[in-house]
Queue: 2 jobs
Job 1
Amino acid sequence: MKLIFEKGAPGQHLSLMPPCDVPEVTLSRPRTEPLNLPHVSETELTRHYTALAKRVHGVNDGFYPLGSCTMKYNPKINEDMAALFSQIHPLQPEETVQGCLEVLHESEKLLGEITGMDAMTFQPAAGAHGEFTGLLLIKAYHARRNDAARTKIIVPDSAHGTNPASAVMAGFTVVNIPSGEDGCVDVEALRGAVGPDTAGLMLTNPNTVGIFDRNILEITRIVHDAGGLCYYDGANLNAVMGVVRPGDMGFDVIHLNLHKTFSTPHGGGGPGSGAVGCKEFLRCFLPGPVVTRDEAGYHLTVPEHSIGRVKDFYGNFSVVVKALTYILTLGREGIPEAARNAVLNANYMMKRLSEKYAMAYAGPCMHEFVMTLQDLKDATGCSAMDIAKGLLDHGIHPPTMYFPLIVHEALMVEPTETESQETMDEVCRVFLDLWDLAHQNPQALHDAPTRTPVRRLDEVGAARNPVLRYTGE
Amino acid sequence: MFLMGTYVPNTAAQQRAMLAALGVDRAEELFAAVPREMLVDRLNLPEGLSELSVRQKVSAMAGKNRVYPTVLRGAGSYRHFIPAVVKSVTGREELVTAYTPYQAEISQGILQSIFEYQTMICALTGMDVSNASVYDGGTAAAEALAMCRDRKRNRAYVSACADPQVIETMRTYCFGSGMALELIPERDGRTDLSAVSLGADAACVYIAQPNYYGNIEDARATGEAAHAAGARFIMGCNPIALAVMETPAACGADIAVGEAQPLGLDVAFGGPYLGYMAATKAMFRKLPGRIVGQTHDAEGNTGYVLTLTAREQHIRREKASSNICSNQALCAFTAGGYMTAMGADGLRQAATLCMSKAHYFAGELEKTGLPRVHTGEYFHEFVTKCGDPVKILRALDENGILGGLPVKDGILWCVTELVTREELDRAVSIIKEVC
């Protein structure tokens, strides 16, 4: 498919703005270089972007069991509601934005109840941004207590790569601890790792292999006893929302991915929202401003010992509107019902796929499970990548590949609660057929996909000779 | 019991059948690993609602906001004309509901759109390489400082004339990383580089162009001074202004960043917006976040992939250049659609309209006794002296006009192409009555 720069012709344009109705002004040192933007008609423009959209697989195009990403259905009412707030300037007088502030305040209250946290900021724009923010809260807390020795963040080896990267951005050094045989935290290893230099622990529960760590209270106690704080990565909250709360597990600070658990669309890689919640004793460190309420209404205030802003204004506000719409829709009963069905669907698929595929850990799982295709690879030469590419030819988005790093030839499957039994049955059949194909005709899988707009792409070549923009050649 | 929209398609009977297949009676049994004492008895949340009731409830909240027909306030968030075609193409559900393009073969639309966006950002800034976006202008600036840091050079010099929110975000990031941040003082609404001496530890100099007060800085001279001290030069530029203003590349910038919200994104109470980042060839491997590259498939077809991933967190973990993972892909797609719709001529026209109307308004305000505080050139924002800002802003407010933002020495006004000459004349006559 041609690039937009290769379409149209000089002189083609849209008619968008009126002539200038005041005397024209120019700068004394104007731009002198040509500005090479596309020049197309409106017809060409819409066809180009429509063609691009057709070369994308979204949740509406089919099953999307991308583990750890919670690709649930994105309700359309959410989009309508967000649009109601599109024309509000972020620096309008407080009394003219009471509706926006109510959205933030109400979302804080409801999400606080769901997570067991006392306060929340919506400034972080994504999960990783939330991690960075939460870790700065931990840093500020220790600094305020003049406890300068606490420089280390403990991270299990199963953690997402953002955890250690965020810890380093927040100025900590990272201590990796190995996971146990069962994929959970090795409690003895944790005990050996904590000490007076421990600033905190980062953990997700259920963990990245889809198992709820039953030792969670002991884990958070060990960290607290050593003087550290506990950070909850909310990537996997969908399994337990309304069932068990991170705040009750002993966590002090948490980030949520509103674009995962709370149904806001991911937009092909953002915008998301990485809301950060914390216990009361950390409230004073939150990025400002936060929303407070008194008899006169809602106000924007900066917490006393705020770490400062992590972003302009109040975060990806429209995303918060969508999440609030979702929570109001599901309500008290719907939230845990969604979690139960997410877990039920995952277990159902796990059971069906166990017929042929090896699971990395024995069940039951929570909202996702990890398969290990090492044996399949040894027997047939077909890797997790090959199976994933085979799925593409059946209109199925593959599971997360090669994560977590501790599982060989990993495929991590997360169906979510919004998939029907019928869809999962069909998908399981495709998975099982591909397992057979791997044994009968492995070359067919090495060659997959064949029905997609492009075949497997040369990633090594792309990195070796980077072509990062169109140059007209 | 009848539950409101959980978006769960499986009926109770289907759920029972699935549970039976698993050999369990109730879904609760699947949570056996959760210690019983931790289970939530009953959430203190309202009951679920029908779509109609949710619509009414959220609409009622939206109704408590005020939408101003005329806006003369910017300060980091700008109301511009957004062609209808932009919303039409960016609302496509495939794009809206997809995740990050990890599976390139079924994500070519997103990947190509980012490649096109990267190309347009390079065209706009004159820089060599753009990334796929970061969260917003503030985080783009903060990430740019980190790109310039090394063992010997750990001090960032930041213009006091930059947006205070951007400066605050930089400070927070520096609190994390341990980088030192020193403000370069302001004089006459511009960066006074003569007031600081760039030492051997100077990693970079950052200025905004136009700056927070709307003023055009002497960027070339600042860049030369930064480079003379062995420091990098970062410019934070308004992307609309770049259509008519000297490019960061022409001014010698090593990194160009900024808030790209003006490129087709709603003001939306502050977000989602779009941080753009572009760098020279010499520095592009330090760019954070996703970058899309062109390549080909086994049959020789051109295609696009996420590339240079060895910089990123999922490969490098604690050694990554940044932790960024999700960015603002749909916003970048929107900006690409906007720039395509506008074209070079359209973007220049928008910039010229903004700037000319701002100058017209400044002239009229001066006639009413509100002269500019600063001298020299400016783009579409400017600060005027003001006896009683509260009185002026209230009078405008009562007439459906969101006036400028009160700042240190007066009021910071902004005029974009959306405001007509009649609206400006009306604003002036309202101000005349109260001054």
Note: Chain B touches chain A through 200 residues (CB under 8 Å).
Job 2
Amino acid sequence: MDFQLNLNTETVDQCYPTEPFCLAPTTIVAEALRQMKEHNRGAVLVCHDQIVIGIFTERDALKMMAAGATFDVPLQQFMTPDPIVLRAGDRVGKAIAMMAQGGYRRLPIVDDRGRPTGIITVQGIMHYLVEHFPTVIYNLPPEPHHSIHEREGA
Amino acid sequence: MIFCPYCGGENIEGDDDCAQCGQPLDDTYLTPPNSEVERSLLRDRISVLAPKRPIAAAPMTPVGDVLRLMVERRIGCVVVVDGNQPVGIFSERDALRKINVAAADLAARPVYEFMTPNPQTLVADAKIAFAVQRMDLGEYRHLPIVGEGGELVGIISARDILRHLTDNLARGG
């Protein structure tokens, strides 16, 4: 019950958002890929005048790699325009539901003018769960492949 | 009958250690689960997530073929198997970090050169709490599920776990 209360009261900034990582829509994909690799980021927010207008993820990159596409094109050509976003005041439960149902792995957080303030990732949500259930999750035996010894005579 | 504070397994009254996970049963400092979600994390096994059939590839498969497979099957990772034993995972992140703009030049190279070797695996009767812990520690989005002989039998994703939790909450948390 407590947990459900948390989900309905705590806001998404509790889910360890990462710093927004923004590039211009005219950035060449090859340069974006280089930067994603360098900074170990799975997505870039495509921003124009500081407003999020699209998202380009490692999934988009994968499709281009598989197709043997040229990377010498601007991001705006391969980004997903107008991504689903969260507001800073949105509840954790909303983010979890959107990820579980919509299949989104990351959701940008924007302020009331559409400027990005962070990105919530599925990893951030998992960490939130661990932090909320420390007794349940941290105290587990270290090796999940525990052998189940048969009870003698049973 | 008493329940193990670690794994939730049933034990005979008077036993010192849990017959399932080997942890001591007298840990009175552990607070009992106080919500349906906590109980679910401790009680439910990975098998309730109905792990999907994994898409597997042999180590020598050209990485270009694996990239196309991931797009066609709409999956985020491929389990690299030697026979039926998982020896690595090749994920979107591996593609970004190791293939990147060189996709055309590297397409014919074998996937084992780019996979993340020795993947963390779980058995289907491990608790969901285990999976959450492993995913958090290793920052994995996927965990292959193996049978008793270490053979690949399934795969679960972080999304499967989130869906399970939201289902539990919907049932009245």
Note: Helices of chain B lie at 36-43, 63-72, 92-99, 103-106, 128-138, 158-170.
